[in-house]
Amino acid sequence: MTRTRLPWWLKVTLVFLLGRAVSTVMLLVLASQQAENAWTGAQPSLWDFSTIWDGRWYNIIAETGYPHELPYTDDGHVGENAWAFLPAYPAIVRGLMAITGLPWSISGVLISVLFALAASLVFYKVLIKHVPAQQALFAIVLFAVSPVSPLFQLAYAESMQLFLIALVILLMQRKLYGWVIPVVIVLSLTRPGALAVALAIGLHWIYRYAKRKRSRFPTRERVLLASVALISAGAGFAWMFIAGWVTGVPTAYLDTELAWRSAYIGYQELIPFTPWIHAAQWWTTSFGYPELGGYILLGALVLGFFVFLFTPAMKKLGVDVRFWLASYALYLLAVFFPQSSTFRLLAPLFPVLGAIAAPKSKVYRVIMVVLFIVLQWGWLLICWRIDGYDWSPP
């Protein structure tokens, strides 16, 4: 009797759907226990519970767009407002609402799920170029149940962002450089990170130039790749200029972003690579520990991550994956202030799952899946569930 082998895309889809089933059960349990809050009444439906927090900002953008005048606090600083959230995701959700008549809550979740499935499929194709099929598929299992994987079915733009990142990596692997341009432009209007793409492309250019004697790097490709890097860099600043032009305040976007960290360290200018130092100081002193401990921990984390990029398991994933991971990590170090959203902001580092999936031990793999599911539950409890005055937004 001949054994029927499922096609790769069906395997990936089934794994993804099983992961969403796990997250759905968790969300249903929490929704049944959720008290009345700023976004919903008590015990909201799954759809309503899946569109709280930043989902409401995207809802506002889809319904009314962006403000032409910035809101200001009593002490004269720019307050939290919609300019912190980019337009591509709410625009697509708005389009689905117009076509189908579905409400925001359902449309927002459906778009997230579809992009997350697409991200899973593209991620598999990125991995299969360098690792065995079994390892690639287990990486998809880990992706489907990862600690922040509930985002794949919440009204957030992360699913779309991860799909676009995976697509950029795949295009770079296949040297389809021209196609990166429209993808990175859309990415720049989905979530911040186009500057990290520009850096990754720049590293790819340097790598190919250094290896040009062993592998041809024609002048046409050099010029094209350099152009893609420059366009990506420009796309990384585009939303800042758009926000400044519409509001008449050149620093509108940065001021809006800085409003979210003011609860921790007050209103300060953004000086690249200082936010993590400020965070190391703030978090350690807030919990009664000496500042030096925070600096040591920060240094160990940064050093450990970049050492990890040179482990055999990571090297097997190819240079483009590692270029992206290094570039995005540097981008976060440059601009992001670590707080409860850190877990979500680390989601674009998902290609590391390809290396984590390398061990073939069944015991190891079962432990990793169970651990990821436990961490997923923990993330939902800490960051998604609302308990009175909640200082830990996702």
Please provide a written account of the structure.
The protein has 394 residues and is mainly α. It has one domain. It contains 19 helices and no strands. It has helices at residues 8-33, 46-49, 54-64, 88-100, 104-128, 133-144, 158-173, 180-188, 194-210, 219-247, 252-259, 262-265, 275-286, 291-308, 312-315, 319-335, 342-345, 353-356, 362-384. The longest helix is centred in the middle third of the chain and has 29 residues, at 219-247. One of its GO terms (biological process) is GPI anchor biosynthetic process. The chain crosses the membrane at residues 12-31, 104-124, 136-156, 176-203, 223-246, 292-311, 323-343, 363-384. Keywords: Endoplasmic reticulum, Glycosyltransferase, GPI-anchor biosynthesis, Membrane, Transferase, Transmembrane, Transmembrane helix. It is found in: Endoplasmic reticulum membrane. This is Integral membrane protein.
